Structures are given as structure tokens and as C-alpha cells.
Batch of 4 targets.
Target 1
Amino acid sequence: MHVLILGGTTEARRLAELLSAGTDLKVTTSLAGRVAAPRTPSGEVRVGGFGGAEGLARWLREHEVDALIDATHPFAGTMSFNAAQAAVTAHVPLLALRRPGWVPVQGDDWHEAASLEQAAELLPALGRRVFLTTGRMGLAAFVDLADLWFLVRSVDAPEPPTPPRMEALLDRGPFTLDGERDLLRRHRVDVVVTKDSGGAATAPKLTAAREAGLPVVVVRRPPVPEGVPTVAEPKSAVRWLADVLDQWTFPDAG
Ligand code: NAP
């Protein structure tokens, strides 16, 4: 039995680990190749695009994949649509493993944006010193904001075009609440921008912003393909697989 995990997330790595431990299931994780030194998942790994939905469907057939799990980041919208289409074409069962979005709590001052461009439009009215945590891609949306200063945190260095007044901070989560508090204070940040990525690893910035009374621009998630069964936890994905691959022995998901 061969399972392909579309990866690039903590949940994808956890699922690969659960499936690789003590089973004879062949597990391949696919990475887009965006990060120079990714954390390596258990099992086999392939890197790079497939060539659209058609390329993925071909790959599924050629590698005799029995089940496909889309465990990409909630903002990897193109890959999720390609997965839905390829699964239909290649007649392979598909599950989406997607962590829930964040929910505001009392004291939060959130401003929703439909895109990075809309986030950029909101910023001048909210602050002057921006902590931008949306990753190194898409910074072109902020290039015209010459009056604002940006602290851009990303795993790899941002590539031009970037905002004219910018400091890059290369780091990857998980982040701590103390660390985020200190960072906001040290850089005199007065507004935070984030995608609604969800999950615990990068949530402390939201708590730190709330404590400091700072506004947060939250970029909404892109649409997801309809009709794809979705779970939030790697363990639930293991259970789905056990149902789908009924000859396969269900491992103890802990
Ligand atoms: P995207 O816009 O949805 O996808 C663009 C193209 O990248 C896809 O059409 C596909 O190329 C290729 N691709 C994406 N994910 C792939 C994967 N897991 N394996 C092989 N090819 C993949 O994706 P993205 O937002 O650029 O994200 C790329 C990767 O980074 C994803 O794996 C995602 O999980 C991870 N990531 C993304 C974010 C984010 O904020 N977007 C954050 C953290 C991690 P082909 O059409 O040629 O197949």
C-alpha cells in the first residue's frame, strides 16, 4: 500500500511519522521545494512540483498510490485544488488534513483582510512599525508603503521586491510567548500582520499582540475544494486511512 502526503507542514510530518512507525505501508511525502533546508519527514521524500493536476494524476498512477492526503498549509490553495482534481482523474481516495483557523478572543483587535493586498491597504490607518509574519512570498503587496517600517520574519531570506524600509528576521517556529513579547517590545512594533494559519507553533504572537493592545491584520484563508473529506488531526487521518485501505493493519496512533 502506498500513501502520498502532500506536505510542508508540522501536521504532514507528524502523519508521516505515525504511518512510518511499525507498518509496512509505503509513505511518500511531497515537498514543493520552497525552503532551502526543510525539516525532513519520516519515510520517502520527493521534492518539486508535479506539473499541475494532470502531472499529479500521472504521478499517482505511475507510483501506484492507494491514498492521497493533502496536508499542505491552509494557504497552499492551488495545490489543494490540484489534489482534488488529480484524485478524481486517477481514482485515488483523497483526504484533506487541515488545522483549524484561529478564533479571536476577548481583548483581540483583529482586522480581517481577504488578501495581502488588502492587508497593505489597511496598514497605514493602523500603525507605523509593522511585524509582518506572512512569509517571504508576496511582499510585493507592501512595496508602496514607504512611510512604514517592516520587520519581516521568514524561514529563508525575502526576495525583492520588498518594502523599502525593512529588516529581515530569519527564524522558524515554534515561537514562545516570552520571545514574541520581547520581539514586539524591542522593535517597538505597533501593528502585526499574519495569515490565519492556525496551530500552536505560531500562535504566541497573537497573545503577545493582545497583551500589548496592538491591532492584528489577519489574512483570511483561500477557498478549499468542495466535497473533500477534511480532518484537523494527524491521528484522525490515520483512522481515515485504516477505513480506506482495509487490508492495512491499523497502527496504534497513541
Ligand atoms: P501553492 O501556491 O498552493 O502551489 C503552487 C505550486 O507549487 C503547485 O501548483 C505545485 O506545483 C507546487 N506545490 C505546492 N505544494 C507542493 C507539494 N507539497 N509538493 C509538490 N509540489 C507542490 O503552494 P504554496 O503556497 O506556494 O506552498 C508551497 C508549499 O509550502 C506547500 O507544500 C505548503 O504546504 C508549504 N507552506 C506554504 C505556506 C504558505 O503560507 N503558503 C506556509 C508554510 C508552508 P505543480 O503545479 O507543478 O505541481
Note: Residues 77-90 form the longest helix (14 residues).
Target 2
Amino acid sequence: MCGIVGYIGKKPSVPFLLNGLSKLEYRGYDSAGIAVLTDENRICVRKAKGRLSVLSDKISGENISGSIGIGHTRWATHGEPSDINSHPHTSNRGDIAVVHNGIIENYAILKEKLISRGYKFVSETDTEVVSHLLDYYYKGDMIDAIIKLTEKLEGSYALGIVSAAHPGELFAVRKDSPLIVGIGENENYIASDIPAVLEYTRDVYLLEDKEIVWFKDNQVTVLDTDKTEVKKEVFHIDWDVSAAEKGGYEHFMFKEIMEQPSAITNTVMPRIENGNVVLDNITLTKEDIERFNKIYIIGCGSAYHVGVTAKYFIEHLARIPVDVELASEFRYRNPIINKNDLVIIISQSGETADTLAALREAKKQGARILSIVNVVGSSIARESDDVLYTWAGPEIAVATTKAYSTQMQALYLIGLYFTKMKGTIKDEELTEIINELCSLPSKVQQILDNMQPLSSYAAKHFNAKDVFFLGRGLDYCTCLEGSLKLKEISYIHSEAYAAGELKHGTISLVEDGTLVVSLATQGAIFDKMVSNIKEVKTRGAIVFSIAQEGNTAIESESDFVYYIPKTLDIFAPALTVVPLQIFAYYMAVNKGCDVDKPRNLAKSVTVE
Ligand code: G6P
């Protein structure tokens, strides 16, 4: 949530700040602002409610000179989106400005104290306590003031700070919110995430909690809260710059849908050697795997849906009990876990606040942590015992597609690896499954080459008010994701139901013209699914079915059928999600929605 950037160098800072913020808008986009330390040694603040473009237009005629600055793109938590609540926030004299990502949990009590000391608050934000506290603690040394600040603040923060008393300097600090330092030539940067600096440098420092960064002229010093210098290693990013650009596509989401064959190839193929799954850098031994009584899979949003799917196939193949939990529930419910349990954490960003907290809770209780992460060096990756990277490249659209697909592949790899270690199925069968796994990228490509029927179908039905997604077993799991995709980007109400539950309530919502998306790819329960489709059809539903190629029995029960290439039933989720992504995308495009930046959402949810 919220994106922050900062620049210190020799050039005017505004172009970097605006460009950097444009790369972070996926983190929040209800208002934006910048603060520049001008050549006259004043702090010039400009901010505006709305997308970054509103701010850019507002300042387009101005010449804001100054080669040090900070910027912010907001996802409102405390106080509605407005010019006043936008960041940066300043001290009452206007000589200190801060941008903040995170939530100051004890802001109310701090605010009360500051008011009693004569500080005037102008916004409703939690962040404003930071600028006033810095002013209160500042006695000539900004590092000392920041250290005192870290002692007082509770909650999460990544902060960028400029001060008129410190020309030629920029400060930053983080706790539980992501922040990186970009190391350039004669200029340096801060940013919430890598895409903001990718055009300028590939060398970054990853910061630990409560590390303070002090930029003075061309020097970057990282200090701990004892004011001792911390030697940081440079982390080199090898992403291609174009990977974070739209590359001719109208939307990032569509580009990322199209990238799925190569993304899943990158996740899987380097991990298949001589027909066996080899998990790079995973230190789990056969004995560890045999010792696990239970696996917990934890994530939020789509990552959770991957977990729900993985439960079905890991239990089926490796015969280890799996529980799947939403991170926001797990972290507060005092779960029963111990050293004989494996906790698998799934997160694209590696920074989701609830997921990170769940990881810490599980670790505290002694569980072994294996994480599936996309962003290299993120907090979740760093705090896990083992990490399996998805190598999907940067994902920018708020609605995940390629990260979801690669997380699924990573779980297939883990499931098959555990299966081999536990010897729960015969080697020949395992080989057949692994061969099929390797064919999935080309099968996803076949779907992408045949999306026209889906776009035409969406063009006819984008005015639907409610859509129900029905499926059984692994199909039900994919329904959860298909329904989420549709509702988050098209704002059409939709729900996913296990088809067997239909008669326990949901069917009362089905009436003439209700659109039902039915997934029927699972051989063993195909007939049951057909009966459920008949039940909704009888009550007037319009049925769009997805089935495996050759399974034409579904046609007489459906108004429209989309066939996925034939695959093993356990791999159907890797394919069926793709037409559902495309369907959701075209429903949203036809409705004229902002596909990449759906209202009220943000990609990286770094607050609770
Ligand atoms: C947000 C995103 C979802 C994502 C979820 C978890 O809600 O919009 O696409 O699944 O966060 O994010 P993570 O980075 O932990 O996978």
C-alpha cells in the first residue's frame, strides 16, 4: 500500500520522482505528492487528490528546481483521499517533510501529546505525527531525531525525509514496510519497490527493520539505531527493464496474461533434471519431509487460492495432510503448530503484511518455513528457512495472473518432490506426471492463441449483474480465483460455489438469465457436475462451461463451451484459470473499467 520514492543527485529531482511514482502506482493511486528541497533551501510541496496524472498536470507549468526530493502515491487508510491528506506531510514550520508507507498504530496517542505541546495538525492522517515528532526531537542532528522516532512509533513504516536544515541530505528508515535504496552514478534513490529505480540502476541495498539511511551528497551510509554503520551488500537486479513496461499492450494485465507460458517455463524447467524434480537451494531432507505431520499453506487473496488448490493435489499425491489458511486469520487465532509441521507461505510481493506476520507467528512456534515468492530479496523471502522463487518477472497489474500461475507451478513442483521422497506413487506414474507438467506451457499457449471466443462471449455478457462460478474438487478451487478476477476488475458481483453446495442456498439466487460459469474438467466427478449444471439450467441460468477437449457431453447442457487442451485432471487448474482470466479481462474492458488499477485496491497490501 502506498508507494514512496526519493532522489538525491545533481539533476532536477522532479522527473525522477514523477517517473518513479508512475512505476509504483500499482501500490495505491488515490492521490500523489512530492516535496523538493529547492536550490533556495526551502521545501516545496505539491500534492493532489486523484491519479498521479492530476499532480503532473498541476505542476507541469512550474519550474521546481532542486536535486533532492521525495514523492508518494497513496492508498488511503487514515483520512479520505484529499489534497490535504495526501503526502508529503510537513512540520508546522514547513522545514521538514515526510512521505510514509505503512500505518502508525499508536498515532492517536502521539497526536494527543503533540497537540498538548502546541503542534497543529492539518490532516486526518496517521503520518502527520511523524513530521511533528521529528520536529519535536530534532536538536540539530537528524539521525538522533530519527532514532528517537523509531523508539516511539508503533506499527509499520517506510519513511523518506527531507529537511531544510540539511541541504544536500536525504534520510530514510523502514520497519515492516518495504524500502530499497538504489545506488546510481552520482545519484541515489529510495523506493518502495524495484520497478521505480529499474531505469536508473540495477544495484540496490535491501534494508532491514529500523535501518536508517543517510544520504549526504554522493555518499550513502546505513546506520542501525545505535548509530553504528551497517555494511550493506549490493544486490544486483537482473530484470529486463522492458519486463516492467507495457511493451505495446494496452494493459499490464493483458501483457502478464500473455507472458504466462514463458513465466511458468521459467518456474518449472530449471527444476526438472533427468525427469526428476530438483528444488534449488531447498534444504529440506527426505527425513524432514517424512517427519512432517502436517503442512499449512498460508497466503492472502489469489495466493490463498493457490493454497486451496494445492491442498487437493498434495494430499492426493504425497498423502500429507494439508491445511490452508488466510494469513489474516492464522496470525490471530493462536494456531496449534510445532516443529513437525511445515508452513508454506505464498506471496508474490513477499511483503504482504498479514502474510509476513503469519510467517513470524509460525516461526515463533517452531514450524519450518518454506516460502514461494516472486520478488527476490523481499521480507518474506529473507525470513524463511527456504525459498522457492517463482521467477515470473515483475507483475504490475493489481489483479494477479502470471504470479498466480507460477505459484501454482511451484506448488506442483513441491507436491511432486514430496511425492517422490515419500514414495507414495510408482516411479512410472510420477514420470508420466512430470512429463505432463512440462507440457503445460505449450497448452497455456494454445489457450492464448484461441481467446477470440472468450472475448466475443464477454462482449455479449458484460452487462451481467451477478455471475456464479460452480465447480467440484479442483474445479471449485479455480472457481474461487475466476470469481475474484471478475469481481475485482469488472465490479460485477460474483461468487464461487462448490457445486455440491448449490442446493444448500445458492440455487435460490438463480433466475432467468443468471450467468453461471461452470468448470467441468474432473473426470471422476464429471457426471455429478453435469447434474448440477442441469439444475441451474432448469431454473433459467445461462451456462458458460469449461471442459477438457473431447468431453463433448457438456455441450447439450451449456449455452457456450470453451475447451482447454487435454491434460491430467490434477493439472486442469493450471489451464482453466487462463480462460477465466481472459473472460474477466474482456468483461472489464467492455465495461470501460480501469483494468490495471481497479478502484479501492492495491497490489501490495503492506497494511493489515
Ligand atoms: C493483493 C493483490 C492480489 C494478491 C494479494 C496477496 O490483494 O491484489 O493479487 O493475491 O494481495 O499478495 P501477495 O503479494 O502476498 O501474493
Note: Residues 552 and 561 are 9 Å apart (CA to CA).
Target 3
Amino acid sequence: MHLDPEDERILAGEAGETRQKMLELLVALGRVFGAERLVPIKSAQVSGASYKTIGKYGLDWLASLDAKAVVPAVLNPIGMARTRWEEMGIDPGFAKNQQAVVAAYERLGIRLDCTCTPYYLYETRYGDHLAWSESSAVSYANSVIGARTNREGGPGALAAAIIGKTPCYGLHLDTKRVPQMVIEVHADTSRWGVADYGALGYHVGKLVGNRIPYFRGIKPDTDQLKAIGAAMAATGAVALYHVEGVTPEAQKNRYDLSGLETISVEQAEISRLFTQIPVDAVALGCPHCSPAELAEIARLLTGKIVTKPLYVFASEGVINKNTRIVDTIEKSGARVFADTCMVVSPVMEQYPSIMVNSGKALAYVPNMCGGQARIGTIEDCIQVATE
Ligand code: F3S
């Protein structure tokens, strides 16, 4: 693997022990995956941020490191809203440990935006090389923006943030970004919303595993693309997909699809995911809400009062730029929280059954929160929360 003189200097320990260890980790990863070189990155997004997922050992490891990120780097959602954790009913012991994790990352120069939607906060462009961790963010970066990132583990993304480079293999290479199967959707998608596309992703992720699908027969907007990708990354391991005539690489390239396995998806396969189980709480914002999604929730809640707990999750940056909209949502009794989400926070564990409008949350809530999950359109979610 080619390393430049600066890399050799870091590997020799001349830039400190943490940078040496971080580069050793990247070189080891590169060797395992056959990378010929490291590639400079524009930004990093680091998972392993919730105390619920990393625990004491993760915190001790972070606290032992001593270096600074050299590229813009943002944290994944943590286990609670940093400033409103008491309002979420978070246990003070958990909050103390979570604050220690956040402080450790801050010391390493990681920005505390705590979001799975860094693309709403930092400019990310077609062709940019990145080292992002969270699966829905990785899918969005690769598929919707046309940037290039593998799905990094937390330590790999942190190492890339501190070194400013990542091993150049997998989705950083043109040859690894071509479609591997075709998904033909046979449904009238003209009235589909985010939840329908999330359900499509939930269904298709189980069929494709880690292959790169090429969709035909759908015309999703960016929020709907976000929903498909998040769900496919949850039920499968899809880090890149293409949509004919929609996503940038599908528009730019003429792929040879002949000979690829083709799977048809019918409306009935999507409709059967929309069950009618009773729910105790409603959670929206997986992945974190865009400004348009927040506005839609506010519109649907105007003049209503919630009768069930309704949680909405978004990044602090998006919340701060949309305070009037957030005020409208909270006037209904719903709560809009930054920094965290329905899966990585313990807050949803108190509810046996949760309604969501996300295919990813439909997959993760039963495993991570212990309860049942029901998917519904945004209109149905608001209806159930206010009936
Ligand atoms: Fe984001 Fe949490 Fe969903 S990290 S994609 S809101 S599970």
C-alpha cells in the first residue's frame, strides 16, 4: 500500500501516539480490503456515540485518545438531547455517562451536531470522498449525492477524521459502484409518500442483501430517496443504490443491465407492511427530519393537541433554522428533540408499541427498543397521535 512521507512520519510515531495508532488502524483496514493507497476525505461522520451502544469500554477507549480531527467531522446521534435530557425522562446516571462520551469526542475535535443527516449541515458534493459511518447517511451520500464512502465502523471513521484520509477501496472506486441487480416496481407510485418508499426499502433490503440495486418504475424526491436508502441499509446492507432517471450516477452513466437478476415488486407486497396494531406512542424523524418534513408535521399538527406522546427528531442545525415551525409542532404537545433518535435513546423503551413513518425504524425499533413497531403515512401518524 502506497504511503506518502507524511504518513510514514506519522507511522513512526513522530506526530504522537494517537495519530500513530489511528493511521495503523487505517493501514490495517486498507490491507484487509486490498486498498492501494489512502485517499483524502472532505468530512467524517462518526458512529459509536450513544452510551447505550458503546458502554463503559467504549468511553474508556475514547478518553485514552489524544489528537484532533483535521477535517470537518460530526457525531452520530447520541442517547439523549444534550440540553433537554431531563425533559426526555433520561436517567441522570445515563446522562452523566453520555455527557462524558460527548466531552471525549469534543476533545478530539469532533463537532457535536449529533446527527445522521450531516448532508443538511455541511456541503457535500458529487465525487467527494468521505468517511461516514451511519448506514442511512452513507446510503444518502453515495446514492443521492454521488459522493463516495464505505460504511465505516466508528473507530475507522474517527481514525479517518484524525488523519484526514481513508483507505481507497470499495465504494471509493468506479468499478465497485455499478448496479448488481434490477428492481422493477409495479405500482402506482404517484401518491406514494415517505412511508411508502420506506416500506419499499424495508422490503427490497431483505431481497438484495449487500448488492447494489438499480430501481425502475419509481420517481422519488430527496426525502423519499432518504427513506428508501435508510430502510434498505437496515433490512439489508445496501450502501449504494441507483434509481433510473433520478439519482446522479444513474443519470450520468449508461449501465449495462443485461444479464443482471431482475426482481419485480408489486403494490401488495408494500401494502401488507402497513398493519393496524394499537400504538402507545408515535415517533417521527428516522433519519432525522429535513426542513420540508418538519414543515409537513407542523402543517398537520396546526390547531391540534396530541393525546399520545409524539416525538420528532432532527438535527440541532435544522431545528435552529426552523424555530417557528418547531414552535408550531411543540404547541400541540409534541416534542422535537435534537442530538438523538428513537433508536439510540432509551426513551422509547417505555412504550410497548410505537408508530413510525420510517422503514428503517420499522426494522430497528423491535430489536433496539424491545417493543412492536407499526408503519404509517405521516398523515396517519399524526391522526393516531391526536385522535
Ligand atoms: Fe438516524 Fe437513528 Fe434512524 S441514527 S437513521 S434516526 S435509527
Note: The longest helix spans residues 17-32.
Target 4
Amino acid sequence: MTARLIDGKAVAAAERQKCRERVEALKREQGVTPGLAVIMVGSNPASAVYVRNKMRACEDVGIRSERFLLPETSTEDDVIRLIERLKADPDVDGILVQLPLPKHYNIERVLGTIPAEKDVDGFHLYNVGGLVVGGTVFPPCTPYGVMRLLEHEGISVIGRNAVVVGASNIVGKPMALMLMQHEATVSVCHAKTRDLAQYTVLADILVVAAGCPNLITGPMVRKDAVVIDVGINRLPSGELVGDCDFEGVSKRASFITPVPGGVGPMTVTMLLVNTINSAARSAAARDAAGASKSLLGAV
Ligand code: NAP
């Protein structure tokens, strides 16, 4: 059997159409255009491509986006001052700091300056904590995109064995927490896990986010498992591949995401969803504040 492909591009296109409609409605009904501020420090070429893609995606659905490009010589305090300014700007619904930052920066301090209600990347401690106890304002985009893909394919995770390979703060850990929130039984593996295959063969749902080409081969996958390959690796030949040996794994899995064209398009799309949700929340809060003021005026 060959696995069914989960077409992330098609799912992302459908989600973006919904985004377009929501932005139109916000403009029409509340006079609000969602706004995203993207901060980039230095000139890392990969980061420049990611930032450009995010801004194009915003434009595509009608979100206003602005890029703040700071030179490599900028200090951590320069970035924090900029965030403080954007924090106070009512036209900015989302603030995103493109990672990686220069090595000597204290990333937690920089990300912690973004207020939770504008943290559309979902990296603020409040948003991360919300994944544990509930109440997350913005789920981090990549795992959120994976959950949306599963939902779109009608794949329930309730009571199923989910194995996440990779335990980073931005992908693996929030992925595991989201799967747990949706009542999967979750195992998390990382670089020091002994005998990775003993875990992966138990997975009904296997999410791989390690950044190692060919880490997962066919025999490591349970028959009919759902395999989500988050990895993006550029081979010396220039080819872009995931973390799975696609050919071997797709012979055993029931569903698989391709690389490229699987999780990648969903990550940017969920950033749009978070930014629109932020704008909608702020508009609702402004309306509520306006209504209570006029009630007070009537007393
Ligand atoms: P990261 O910060 O480097 O984390 C990698 C994680 O994988 C770590 O937890 C590491 O373990 C674990 N790991 C590394 N080698 C392993 C091995 N041989 N066996 C088991 N676990 C191993 O990377 P990341 O930011 O999470 O990204 C992971 C991959 O996803 C990368 O390829 C990245 O490009 C891709 N990515 C894709 C998207 C998308 O939209 N598709 C978004 C974000 C990231 P330790 O914790 O023990 O070091």
C-alpha cells in the first residue's frame, strides 16, 4: 500500500480563502484592517526569504504588514525599544521577531517583551504556559498547522498513540502539548533518546521535527500510521527533503505529508489566522469598552 498524500498546499489555500473573507468582513463591518509588524535583525539570507514569504502571504489575504529591518550591530535594547513602540500602536495586531537573533542576544528577554496579546508566533511564556493549563491566546504556528492538517483529513487523535520526534521549544514541545490537549497518548523523543525505533513503531500518529534527513525509515513506522514530516533539510544537491525516507515510509503509512508542500505552507497560514484573530479580539474589546462607556454616560 502507498500512503495518501496530505496536500498542505491545498489545505493552506482553502484556509487562506477563509482568511481573505474574514479580513474583508473585519474591514466592512468594523473598519479594521489587521496589521502585522515583522522585526528582523541582520541579513541572514534564509530569514530574509522567510520574512518575504510572510509579508507576501499577508498581502495575499489583505493583512497590512510592515518590516522593521535592524542592522546586525543593533543591540538587544534597540530591539526591545522597537517592540515597546509597536506594543503601544493600536494599528499593530501582531508582532513577530524573526529567529534566529544574533547569538549574544537573550532571546527570552526579547520575546518576553512582546505582549501575549500581540504574540502571534505563540512564543511568549503566557502562550506556552496556556498550552499546559489551557487559555493559550495564540498557538504556535507550526504545531497549530499540523493540528489543522489532521483535522482537515478527518484524523482523530483521541486515545491514539502519538510520537513526536524532536523536542524544541518552537515545534516539538508545543506539538506534544497540543496532541495531549486533544487527548492523544504522547511520547516525546529527542537526540538522546536510546533506540528511537522502539518508540516510533508504536505510533499511530508520528510527527517528526528533528532536522535530520532520512532519520525515519520504513521499518521504523507502524503499518497504517499517519506520518507528519515537519523537517526541512537542504541536501548538498540543493534538493529540499524532510526527516523521513519518503519512499520507504510512504509504503507503510496510511497518510504522509510531502516535503516541500506539507507542513510548510500551513505554518505561514496559521500566522495569518493568529493575526486576524488578534485584530478581531482587539476590535471586540474596543466595542465592549465603547459600549460600557456609553452605558456609564446614560447612568
Ligand atoms: P531544533 O531546534 O534544532 O530542534 C531539533 C530537535 O530534534 C531537538 O529537540 C533535538 O534533540 C531533536 N533531534 C535532533 N537530532 C535527533 C535525532 N537524531 N533523533 C531524535 N531527535 C533528534 O529544530 P526545530 O526548530 O524544532 O526544527 C526541526 C525541523 O523542522 C527542522 O528541519 C526545521 O527546518 C523544521 N521546521 C519546519 C517548519 C515548517 O514550517 N515546516 C517550521 C519550523 C521548523 P535535543 O533536544 O536532544 O537536541
Note: Residues 31-116 form a domain with the Rossmann fold fold (CATH 3.40.50.10860).
